[in-house]
């Protein structure tokens, strides 16, 4: 069985290198490590001596929004061309546990997308994270299942799918059709993929015994710096699936006076009033397409 790990990177070179150290220390080292760079020349340098050596694929960025969905599809195509029997996607911030790759490889079956538990690390000490200490330092996400090491929990909610850590077979990837490349920038493409799985009759499962440890980085809550991406991608999701995603963030933006919802047209629009940084963009649902 040939196992491929796919990750995307745009400016987090240090996080990428710790991820590779985690892969190298695992009980099963991936046969193919595909690193998809998005305007990130630093990632084109050799990362560490093998195993696993990085197979770097560059995806150009047009404009300011990262083509995350397209980059994942490019990485999958590279892995499939290399003969992968199992595709494992890891966010660049995620460091796998010692048995994570092996657990994904042994459990992956046609017709199911598996997601291991993602736990969150505190800010690193001055000398950086220590691999052996990650498990004891991380905290689980309160809104996601955390099955026992020998469990697979099926029937996952497509609204909870996220691309930080998941695995599937090539047949399942083809059945779902990959990620919708119309999404660019932050938000929406993960939930879209979850809905595409449900439409294709592919089950979402939560896999125990396959943890990853998410390295700390600054975040905004709500992510105001991504508001235009969220509105644009949300409108795309509404067109494709008939509903707005990320409603919690939209509600928080509205409470901050940054956006307004027109119930008659199901339109979200940025306010252009004083004190808001905005281009006045308007996004709406114009019917099925």
TrEMBL record:
UniProt KW keywords: Glycosyltransferase, Transferase
GO molecular function: glycosyltransferase activity
SUPFAM superfamilies from the UniProt entry: Nucleotide-diphospho-sugar transferases
Chain ranges of the Galactosyltransferase C-terminal domain: 165-204
Pfam families with a match to the protein in the record: Glyco_transf_7C (PF02709)
This protein's pathway: Cell wall biogenesis; cell wall polysaccharide biosynthesis
Family to which this protein belongs: Belongs to the glycosyltransferase 2 family.
Name by which UniProt lists this protein: Sugar transferase
Organism whose genome encodes this protein: Embleya scabrispora
Lineage, highest ranks first: Bacteria, Bacillati, Actinomycetota, Actinomycetes, Kitasatosporales
């Amino acid at each position: 069985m040939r196992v491929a790990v796919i990750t995307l990177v745009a400016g987090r070179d240090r996080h990428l290198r710790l991820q590779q150290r985690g892969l190298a220390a695992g009980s099963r080292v991936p046969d193919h490590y595909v690193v998809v760079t998005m305007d990130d020349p630093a990632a084109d340098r050799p990362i560490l001596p093998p195993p696993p050596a990085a197979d770097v694929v560059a995806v150009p960025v047009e404009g300011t929004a990262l083509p995350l969905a397209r980059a994942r599809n490019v990485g999958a195509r590279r892995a499939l061309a290399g003969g992968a029997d199992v595709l494992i996607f890891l966010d660049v911030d995620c460091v796998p546990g010692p048995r994570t790759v092996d657990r994904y490889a042994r459990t992956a079956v046609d017709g199911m997308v598996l997601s291991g538990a993602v736990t969150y690390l505190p800010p690193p000490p001055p000398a950086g994270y220590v691999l052996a200490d990650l498990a004891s330092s991380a905290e689980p996400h309160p809104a996601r299942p955390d099955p026992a090491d020998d469990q697979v929990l099926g029937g996952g909610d497509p609204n909870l799918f996220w691309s930080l850590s998941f695995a599937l077979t090539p047949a399942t990837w083809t059945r779902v059709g990959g990620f919708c490349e119309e999404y660019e920038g932050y938000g929406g493409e993960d939930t879209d993929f979850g809905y595409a799985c449900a439409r294709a009759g592919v089950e979402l499962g939560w896999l125990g015994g396959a943890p990853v440890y998410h390295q700390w980085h600054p975040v905004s809550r709500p992510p105001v710096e991504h508001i235009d991406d969220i509105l644009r991608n949300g409108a795309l999701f509404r067109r494709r699936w008939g509903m707005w995603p990320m409603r919690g963030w939209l509600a928080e933006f509205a409470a901050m006076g940054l956006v307004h919802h027109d119930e008659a047209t199901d339109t979200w629009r940025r306010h252009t009033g004083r004190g808001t940084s905005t281009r006045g963009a308007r996004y709406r649902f114009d019917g099925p397409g």
